[in-house]
Amino acid sequence: MSSLPQNEVIRTLLGARARLSSGFFLVLRDAHLAEDIFQEVMVKALQHPSLFANEAQLLSWARAVGRNASLNLLRKSGRVSVGLSESLIETLAQEIEAEASSGREEVLAKCLASLPVTARELLELRYFHSLSCGEIAARTGSGLEAVYQKLSRLHRTLRDCVERRLTLSSDLP
Amino acid sequence: MKLKPTELDALLARYFDGTLDADSAARLTAELETKAEARALLRGVAEQAFAVAEAGRCAEARKTTKLVAWPEPKSATRRTRWLISWPVWASAALVLLGVGLIWQLRSPVLMEVMQLNGAVAWTGVNGPAQAVLAPGMKLPAGTLELETDTSQAQVRFADGTLVSLNGRTEATFSQEDGKRVRLRQGTFSAEVTRQPETQPMRVFTPTAEVVVVGTAFSMDARPDETSLEVAHGEVKMRRLVDGREASVTNQQRLVATLDSQAVWSPQAQVRPAMIWRMQFASRPDHVSGEWIAPGQRHAGGALAAQPFVAGKERDGRVIVHHGVCVRDDSGMASLTAASELRMKIRTTQDTGLQLIVGTRKPAGCFGGNFAVNSLSCRHSGPEEWRELRVPVSQLRSITPEHAATPEGLITDFIILNSFGNSAGLEVSELSIFPAP
Fold first, then answer.
1. How far are the Cα atoms of B265, B321, B323 from residue B395, in angstroms, in the given order?
2. How far is CA A66 from CA A12, A72, A76, A92, B57, in A?
3. Is the Cα torsion angle B402, B405, B407, B409 positive or negative in sign?
4. Which one of A41, A132, A155 would you mutate to disrupt binding with B, by most B Cβ within 10 Å of its Cβ?
5. Over 80: is that where the pLDDT of A97 sits?
6. If you write DSSP's letter for every residue of B290-349 in order, what string do you get?
7. Which end of chain B has fewer surrounding CB within 10 Å, N or C?
8. pTM
């Protein structure tokens, strides 16, 4: 059985980076830890290149290894364990993979850039600086509920923006 | 009962915040297990969170790698220039040329200095130590000592044999029945022209003896281990612990240790992967810096900067920088145009940083040293780590006689330092990845 060459392993994983990392984020709820797990998956994949006969096999392996590593990390860090079941996480990861469409990440980046500065700052505090909603509330002088509501509104705005732009681009001749 | 969209949004916000109670978690799980649209919302938030973090990382990387963003301390600028600028040596050489000429008359010339970078000293067999060397100087038998991790020297024998020394290396050269090199420690590579069969070149290390008739090869010697890599031709290696010999040929590698039970057969050289990562959960080998065990100041372990000699002034005073150095003699990662060096760091004060990357060619010989001198790091809190990302394209050669860019070369060592400023620099992870 022939296996994927090293550069194909890297190309495939980098191509699926946002989707894989989003799946790990579902478990970890921390974008930087999700990125760390993705890097760990890449290192492991290159240690065992003969395991993968094709891209689908590699991605399926990466999802499983990353999910297990995320759950282990969560357990080790002693963080709040109220979370999703493993079967639900797997379903979500498969759906993320299935809905991958070309240009989705670029569209999302454009939608993010179109947000007002204050809205982007709130998202950055939450997902780039990894502050909890309670910490953001304390820092901005808002109530906790207000932070939850603002974040929910922003997520809805971004979701609508992505869908609108994708629909528009698919309608173009 | 189906949740209203606003209720679902609120549950998702609490789930990602880690503040969902058990009852709410059960309601959310039931909704997600049965409703595809609920799962789509969850996936959307995850996708957006990752995109926000990614945009932040890219912005941070742009800020920290801006080449003129951080004013280096005056002394650091001067020292860096000194460290990387061999023409300064050349001017010093003019002063010493007269001394060198007299010196040559006393002892037969063995080789000529071709290139120098960083602090390199020469001690003749019976002559005085020379703190300052320069390209073009003719040297008799004696010892070359490279005093820093970034030092580099190249010498040429009269028959065209070219020898390069890199990093902290000490080697004594002499001529008996053939060229003799006693490599006490460090990295040595040579392109050896055809030597007379009865007068081969011999290299001695603490654990091995190597016999060369004509070939290109490189060696790395430590007190307990010598590794040999042959680019082309054939080299004979004898392990001193038991006297066993082996021939090492094209693209092969052999390691001689003090363990007579260790494997003793040449192996094919393996080009390292394009990905490499080092964390500090356990005490690492071949690093300079103070190891901080997990749990002391950081859950995962780290390496703290220590003072090291970065170079020497003309009057012999040492230039001290503070930093960490990680070395892997078998090569860390193969570099491509898309490679990115990533460092998770923190400092106790705002500081400028210098990154130096040492490389070798795929066949094993010295590839060149590269640096970025104007990185910066803002003071961070006790548990706040910053990630610096430096694309390979931003590295500039500090050994201009060698490769202009590190693309296609293999990383041998990485040094990250805060110049002469002890800024409490700590590193929790170093890695090399292809940029997304």
1. 38, 20, 18
2. 15, 10, 15, 14, 21
3. positive
4. A155
5. no
6. EEE-TTTSSTT-EEE-EEEEEEE-TTSPEEEEEEEEEE-TT-S-B--TTEEEEEEEE-SS
7. N
8. 0.61
Q: Do B434 and A14 touch (CB under 8 A)?
A: yes
**What span, in angstroms and rounded, lies between the C-alpha atoms of B336 and B408?**
6
pLDDT band at A123 (very low <50, low <70, confident <90, very high): very high
Instruction: Report the gap between the CA of A171 and the closest CA in chain B (Å).
Output: 22
How far is the first Cα of chain A from the last one, in angstroms, to the nearest whole number?
A: 43
CB B212 within 8 A of CB B235: yes
Q: Residue by residue, what is the 3-state secondary structure of B122-134?
A: EEECCCCEECCCC
What CA–CA distance (Å, rounded) separates B244 from B231?
Answer: 22
User: Is residue B45 packed enough to be buried (19+ CB in 10 Å), middle (13-18) or exposed (0-12)?
Assistant: buried
- Write the CB contacts of A101 (distance below 8 Å, at least 6 apart in sequence): A166
For residue A10, give both structure tokens.
């890297």
Contacts 24+ apart (CB under 8 A), B65-69: B65/B372, B65/B375, B65/B388, B65/B389, B65/B390, B65/B391, B65/B394, B66/B374, B67/B372, B67/B374, B67/B394, B68/B374, B69/B374, B69/B376
Per the document, the length of chain A is 173
How far is it, in rounded angstroms, from Cα B405 to Cα B396? 7
User: Do the Cβ atoms of B421 and B322 come closer than 8 Å?
Assistant: yes
CB B333 within 8 A of CB B432: yes
Contacts of A132 in chain B (CB under 8 A): 17-19
Q: Is A124 on the interface with B (CB under 8 A)?
A: yes
CA distance B373 to B357: 11
Using the Cβ of A148 and the Cβ atoms of chain B, whether some distance falls under 8 Å is answered with yes
Instruction: Establish how many alpha carbons lie within 13 A of residue A162's alpha carbon, considering only the half-sphere containing its beta carbon.
Output: 24
Q: Cβ distance B161 to B201 under 8 Å?
A: yes
Q: Look up residue B123 and give its amino acid.
A: T
Report the mean per-residue pLDDT for chain B: 82
CA distance B139 to B155: 9
Question: Tell me, what's the ipTM?
Answer: 0.89
How far apart, in whole angstroms, are the C-alpha atoms of residue B173 and residue B190?
13
The DSSP call for residue A99 is T
Q: Which residues of chain B fall short of a pLDDT of 70?
A: 1-2, 58-107, 126-132, 314-316
Residue B279 and residue B300 in contact, taking contact as beta carbons nearer than 8 Å: yes
Using CA atoms, how far apart are residues B415 and B412, in angstroms rounded to an integer?
10
* Nearest beta carbon to residue B53 from set A32, A42, A92: A32
Query: Residue B54 and residue A31: Cα distance in Å, rounded?
Result: 8
**Residue A10: pLDDT band by 50, 70, 90 thresholds?**
confident
